[in-house]
Amino acid sequence: MFKTVLFPIDQSRETREAADVVTNVVKKYGSRLVLLSVVEEPPPDASSADDPMVSPEVVAKLLENAQSLFSGQGIQAEILERRGKPAFTICDVADEIGADLIIMGCRGLGLTEEGADDSVTTRVINLSPCPVLIVP
């Protein structure tokens, strides 16, 4: 059913919590797991200290650690690192790899009308070429 699962990761607590769901789905369906992390372009007025996801080194280490975590669960995961705006990049990669499911954590920023347009999760849900499982 879910031959290829895309799991976009960042350094959030929600991503760590979603990892358990990813493990269960991948094991149940024997899915191919692709881990994706997006190196964001920093805003001109911000320093890289404001957001660690703008550092390619931090993102590479994050992907390595996640790959090791899944390896410890007996799951071989592929890793991809891309640059760009997270929501658009996640959907582009899902299309590119033929993902059958995207699993991601939700920070809850899109639960109010004011935050809905800015939420990566909301944008992914609206733009995704495949089903999206949101782990609260």
List keywords for this structure.
136 residues, five-stranded parallel β-sheet, globular
What's the helical proportion of residues? Answer: 40-55%
Stretches with pLDDT under 50, minimum 5 residues: none
**How would you sum up the major sheet?**
5 strands, parallel
Count of separate DSSP helical elements = 5
Strand order of the largest sheet: 3-2-1-4-5
Ends: how far apart?
23 Å
Bulk shape? globular
Question: By helix and strand content, what is the structural category?
Answer: alpha/beta
- CA radius of gyration is 14 Å
Number of strands: 5
Q: Strand share of the residues?
A: 15-25%
The overall average pLDDT, rounded, is 88
Provide an overview of this structure:
With 136 residues, the chain is α/β, with parallel strands linked by helices. Helices cover 42% and strands 21% of the residues. The protein contains five helices and five strands, in the order βαβαβαβααβ. A five-stranded parallel beta sheet has the order 3-2-1-4-5, sandwiched between helices. Helix 1 links the parallel strand 1 and strand 2. Helix 3 packs parallel to helix 5. The protein is globular and about 45 Å long. 27% of the residues are buried.
